[in-house]
Structures
1.
Amino acid sequence: MFENKGRTEIEQLGEFGLIEHLTKNFELKNNSSLKGIGDDAAVVNFEGKKALFSTDLLLEGIHFDLAYTPLKHLGYKAVQVNLSDIYAMNGTATQITVSIGLSSKFPLEAVEELYQGISVACEKYGIDLVGGDTSASKQGLVISVTSIGYADEKDICYRNGANEGDLLCVSGDLGGAYIGLQLLEREKGIFLENPNIQPDLEGKDYIVERQLKPESRKDIVEALKVMKVKPTSMIDISDGLASEILHICKQSNKGCNIYEEKIPIDPMTYDTARDFGIDPTVCALNGGEDYELLFTIKQADFEKIKNNPDISIIGHITEPASGCNLISKSEKVHPIKAQGWNSLKHSTE
Ligand code: ADP
Ligand code: MG
């Protein structure tokens, strides 16, 4: 891996040289970033707002496979999956820290690519890189991102605020990241059997991008503010719609009905799932990694959101005793179960 390009061993730079090299082009953009990289801790000032924090850990072989994940995309995605958690609180994301563990197989050029992806994400979403940590790793690549943001207390959306009669809404479309992963895994398998066969991902850009280069939904949080809609509860869809709906219902002590025909699924996701012999609805319910927002709103807010093409109403909140149900296209009632992440987790081991 990485042999074809120039290869500079990280040891040549040393830890401080590496940090300086990777971070020198990051500039602070937010007024709230008082001190970024270079001291013992970053300093932020949110002036009376509530501060939000969220961390994710990504391990090679568990969360990503470098056989088909370009490092630039990985850097971008590592930031997006984290920002998504701040947006899911209805907050504004402003800073991140990035910690990395590197095994000796990674030359400087590889880490540069990773940081290019991080940089593009920071530019696009207005985020400052304000710190991190760097270490050697015995095996593989480790990345941990912490995202920091703020919100007015009255604007924060928790998972536990859903009320009976609220409408369940979802942004974008679901299942694409999972079916994109199935496609990448299939092509990897073919390549391993016969390295002369090049991957055939033609015409599949959308679902491959959904997997490799997801976008967090800052735009939805902003659109809701403009429409003067404050969700009563909100969560981001990292583990699949089923699991996230159950989180909202459990924490809010409510039930729900969702309608299969209302679940937004892109035509390419739908067709590719069918080609794989997988039910597209199952991809949406249990696939995960879509990083869309799932939220509940008061019925009175229906008029404000109904014309937004990026928001689908998929059901409503009920009393807890009726449970959490999916009403199928043939009008059968199925209790929603969270598929254990073990069964669908894309471990590459
Ligand atoms: P310390 O010894 O206090 O942990 P370091 O030498 O690890 O400090 O880090 C020096 C500075 O560089 C700190 O501001 C730290 O947050 C930042 N930093 C370290 N590693 C990274 C990284 N991988 N990405 C971004 N910033 C980093
Ligand atoms: Mg350190």
2.
Amino acid sequence: MMYDDIEKILYTEEQIKQRAKELGQQIAKDYAGETIVMVCILRGSCIFFAELVKHIPNYVELEFITVSSYCSTNTSGEVRLISDISKPIQGENVLIVEDIIDTGYTLNYLKKLLLARNPKSLKVVTLLDKPSRRLVECESDYVGFEVPNEFVVGFGLDYDQKYRNYPHIGVLKKEIYSS
Ligand code: PRP
């Protein structure tokens, strides 16, 4: 069972849902009267995305984009576009939804890519921020939780494609990823 691979829980499902609600309410306030194009970064942010959008009563369009880090973002910083959003975003309020900012390479790439399309505004919301791992400067407008430099999984975050369905944010046991 995947539960046996978890060292400890950092944030429970309940705490994450509460934080998503708070973030949603803040976003709704900041974008009052505006339509938002919310961009889900597949695959990690899909569960947070689904939770967050429920708390934003604005008119919202849901878009999906898939990027992949080439080998390891840690070393190369190379990010590839696998599949793009479905519509032009010129003149739109675009909000990127991430699960975690680690080195910053993914978000840096995405911000450049989407800014070049001349949106009215571009902001970022991330569930987790791990600033201690940053290799390129990268800021998020909204942050759920700042996390220490530990191997976190669950609520969409994976290790080797596993644990995305773990309902909480947990720290993976060292023997799982070091073996
Ligand atoms: C993870 C995560 C972020 C990115 C953050 O995605 O979902 O998008 O890494 O890391 P960075 O700040 O070092 O770029 P990953 O490439 O593992 O794909 P996934 O979303 O499918 O898990």
3.
Amino acid sequence: MTLGNALPALPYAHAALEPYIDARTMTLHHDKHHASYVDNLIAALADYPDLQHRPARWLLLNSGEIPAPVRTAVRNNAGGHLNHSLLWRAMSPRGGGEPAGALADAIKRDFGSFAQFKTHFAEAGSKVFGSGWVWLVRTHQDGGKLQVTTTQGHDNPLTQGQFPVLVNDVWEHAYYLKHENRRLDYLNAWWAIADWDEAARRYEMSGNAAALQRETEVGQPLARA
Ligand code: MN3
């Protein structure tokens, strides 16, 4: 099938994010969990050839086009596929440090300081009940301000009209082998591998409709309020 929904290769080795995320966790998370979302998405669309070429973000943003018998399965697994595709690129063995440029200015404007942003993001992630995600998003309802938000399951803020800039996964499978029940410790350690170059790229793209059109993962331009 020509489905644009295939498991992307990790952009680094499974052990590259040690000691912050262990190789065993990365192997299970990418090769098993993410792979299962892709497999389950393909299975859900097996009887709907007209939908098989649609990328995950299209499937999420057009839930009314998804037949009712598979709507929930498509939402969960397209979300799992898209969110994990964003997650692998939100991290880097050369990550850490602080953002620069326009993103740094916007974080200071909207959160007061980089330190306050980090506290806000980690606390929000630590408070997600059950399984979900924590995001730095650019809103369009409020002049393009940055905001920290969380989602349940594999929901993506794109469906709320918010553009993801940075993301972390707070499902237990993301951290439990190494950090056990200490989710906040994981979130605080994670700053050492957050990829601010990628976040800055996404922030700049969020203000550029032509770039958004070209983006393969999240190619829906934001409708400006
Ligand atoms: Mn996960």
4.
Amino acid sequence: MKPKYALFILLALASCNGLAPTVDRSADPAASAQKVFLAYDAAAKQLLAKMTLEEKVGQMCQPDQGALKDPADIEKYFLGSLLSGGGSGPKNQADYTLQGWTDMVDAYQRHALNTRLGIPLLYGVDAVHGHNNIPGAVVFPHQIGLGCARNPELVEQIARITAEEVRATGINWSFAPCVAVARDERWGRTYESYSENPDLVQVLGEAAVRGLQGAHLADPLSVMACAKHYVGDGGTAYASAAWNEGRGLDQGDTRCDEATLRRIHLGGYITALRAGVGTVMPSYSSWNGVKCTAHKYLLTDLLKDELGFAGFLISDYNAIDHLDPDYKKCIEIAINAGIDMVMLTDKYAVFCRDLQELVAEGRVSLARIDDAVTRILRVKSALGLLDKSRPPLADRRLHRTFGSAAHRAVARRAVRESLVLLTNERHTLPLSKTASRIHVAGVGADDLGMQCGGWTISWQGSMGDHIPGGTSILTAIKNTVSKDTAVTYAQDGSGARGADVGIVVIGERPYAEMKGDSAELSLPQEDLDALATMKQAQIPLVVILLTGRPVILGEIPAQADALVAAWLPGSEGQGVADVLFGDFEPTGKLSYSWPRCVSQLPVNVGDSDYDPLYPFGHGLSY
Ligand code: BGC
Ligand code: BGC
């Protein structure tokens, strides 16, 4: 090749990665993987041709089941989808069980089958670390821990199991994976992000999509995945004024040029598209002051036209409400920007009416509605939902393996692979199983709720012992040591004197989006006190951190003889004991840079003045 042409091609490639939105990427693996959906167009278009406008807008509407005034409203408004928001399950507490959830979802599905065209519902849920809303499900480590495990095969396997447990309840769609690249740990959703590093997010996000969707979406053990939150949710800027007004980093503004947005935040969507992801959720956040939910360039020009996304866009929970004071205007802006389905709480009647009016008034074109509905029906068809010979109800045989020992074994493995050994003075770890007494302290030692964190049973999660089938770290320690070893426990750290070794389990209390934003990243005083009390006993101390992100450690590294970041490991505490007692070597490597202090934030690998407490990739072994 003549050097002149080589240079030309190089320049063309460079502009592809940079700013040229009009480049034809149809030869890309991402765009060609998306073409799979086009195979379902014939079925989708055939159905579309039979639909009234009322039936079409119904397909575009997704209320939270908990806000339905009457389940028959599914028929009345021809609803195409429902969701269970965090903790939105059967209203009667006694039915908040595997059985109750399954009955609830099937009952809704039967209403959809009663409509004129009988189009089944897509039913969405946040199965973000297992089927985490349902008691008895296996709860996997949150994504930050999987980022430290750095094992795409494991992520895929976890997603396969999650899909199977979701399917057991009749649900066919999970709002996962989150492919955020969290750049500032003060963000309360940091634990939902695999890493501050885009490459790691791209690889693991792709593996999660593969696992959830399986080899084939029509496989009865697959669920539809959803890459979220498009785009730049993890890059929102810290502004002290906003914090003082009570607004954190969540739902904020990502301020950067387009090349930076593409370089850091876009890649996870490209790999998710390549894995065939069928849905994408635009972010509550903004890019340079414009809300992603209203961003026609990002949604339509970039994602659909340039990258070839052939599935559909689901707006985030009531996200369109933030676009304008007038709700009808909100709908107009969102649909015209490219949103195909709208997630909302209870405004479904208004939404369906207003959207029909917008079409009648020429403010939203029928072509845009037809495009949105074609996309939705395409995805439904790919899932096998338009196949009348396959009723869309739960396969209750799957209840037998729900939360099974085999599923838990994979979670346990994920826990041990996700642990990061930060320090280990004088070979404090691994511990002996035959010590005469091990004294355990800290509120996290025997609290499954804290071990699982947010998005567990409820939206924000909570402390306590409400996660059936799980193993706390304290129980795991007792399970592991010899029968002659005494394991004593005092939450406040008292009574340690004379023990061979002390284990203190401290960390963050459960939280999720919004409520989890933190300007200080400090640990509760109660936890620091328990550690100080243990310290007085002058025995070797192992500190285990249950945390959704690197927190500011202060004196802790000086007080601890060994320090382990266990993140939010989920229901299988045995995986922590596996590493503590040396049955497995620690192999986890930090997927985040651990900051020294808050004033240093944001700190990310590649910064020119990079000087974290523990660098990205840090992690000791024995
Ligand atoms: C979150 C999403 C989630 C949705 C449904 C929103 O508040 O931002 O991540 O999928 O709720 O629960
Ligand atoms: C729901 C969550 C949702 C949030 C949005 C909550 O009530 O349970 O799923 O993310 O509202 O604000």
